[in-house]
Amino acid sequence: MNRRDFEGYRHGVPAIRWPGDARLAISIVVNVEEGAELALAAGDSRNEHIYEVVEEVEGDRNLCMESHFEYGPRAGWPRIRNVLRGRGIRATLNACGRAVATTPWIAADAVADGHEVAAHGWRWERHVHMDESTERRAIARTVEAIARAAGAPPVGWHTRSATSLATRDLLIEQGGFLYDSNAYNDDLPYTVDTREGPHVVLPYAFDSNDMRFYNGGGFVFGQDFARYCIAAFEHLWLEGASAPRMLSIGLHTRIIGRPARIGGLEAFLDHALSRDGVWFATRAEIARAWRTGLGMPEWIPRRCPPDFAPEDGRPA
């Protein structure tokens, strides 16, 4: 984790093919963060102040900002869900523990549709300045909340932007995650050594991501998102003729779920579905395929804790 790697696959990509001999694995990631943002109403020390505009309110609840984040669960998620379900595409929900505890029906919807529910931290926070005991509690709390809402513990993890030097080892220690996405440095999975043995990393992407509708990122209309993602798809699909490739598409319920943007997602998905040699997969499926291709030992998922009671739909 601590050693930087600028070489990657400079000496050759492993001779791995995706299921069905696909050229390109496409990972659709729906980030579920709403309810995990900073809010005095949730007992935080301050309010979230960045959305599509900067609205900073100190010392009192920011009702306007709260309503901005409510849009995702109320209107954005149902749109995204319908788009994916109508095309038979299974995605990975990158869910914060506190968000899932606030909106457990989203995890239930995801499981019913065959999606993976992975972990995105407890409170959509960075881990970089956490001490180990604080970070260990945050991971455990997130695992428990997702297990209760989704009926099974998460097997994947993605910290918001900045991890600590201990994050990856703690993920292995806290029950053995199958993979993490705490990297942005390749178009393919790779393995790293941890104190528990080899571990799979599935790099994420900020460019093929609807977050570029914010803060001067270049996307204005839904077709901007579609054009960019299609361009990435075409290039990786061509490269996939000689070596496997992976494309991560990042979504947020409060962003791409807007009526003027959702068509961009539909256009990209329809373009990708029209081509042969494409495998839409959850990140867990991609990680398992990579492990199998490398001949790694079988990964054994963690078990739910003895007092686990998913039917109540609420965190302990």
Secondary structure elements and pairings:
Layout: E1 24-32, H1 63-86, E2 92-95, H2 97-102, H3 104-112, E3 116-119, H4 132-150, E4 156-157, H5 167-173, E5 179-180, E6 190-194, E7 197-201, H6 222-239, E8 245-252, H7 262-273, E9 278-280, H8 283-294
Parallel strand pairs: 1-2, 1-8, 1-9, 2-3, 4-5, 5-7
Antiparallel strand pairs: 6-7
Helix pairs in contact: 6-7
Key features?
alpha/beta; 9 strands; globular; 34% helix; 5-stranded parallel sheet; 4-stranded mixed sheet; 316 residues; TIM Barrel
Structural class: alpha/beta
Output the helix-strand order. Answer: EHEHHEHEHEEEHEHEH
CATH architecture: Alpha-Beta Barrel
Low-confidence stretches: 308-316
Determine the CATH topology: TIM Barrel
Strand content: 5-15%
- Residue share in helix: 25-40%
Task: Describe the fold and architecture.
- The chain is of the alpha/beta class.
- It has one domain: TIM Barrel (Alpha-Beta Barrel).
- The protein has eight helices and nine strands.
- Helix 6 runs parallel beside helix 7.
- The longest helix is centred in the first third of the chain and has 24 residues, at 63-86.
- It starts with 23 loop residues before the first strand and ends in a 22-residue tail after the last helix.
